[in-house]
Amino acid sequence: MHGSAERTGSLFSLVDLEERVPKRHPLRKFREVVNTALASLDAEFSCLYAAEGRPSIAPEWLLRAALLRRSAQFVPSGG
Fold this sequence. Notes:
mainly alpha
């Protein structure tokens, strides 16, 4: 079963990342492009999962995590 890619707020964080990341930070545009690309693949992801059983971690979340981890290598450690 295909898991949901909906955001659930700050489930595991006491800090609102939207407030911490500057409005003009390049990763905001990157996230917008990634979200659009992943949304266009949703139907293809969905057909790979059974209709029954426990929901998996949404493939969008796994790909987003991998992309953001990789992109973090390009962000200076000072912010």
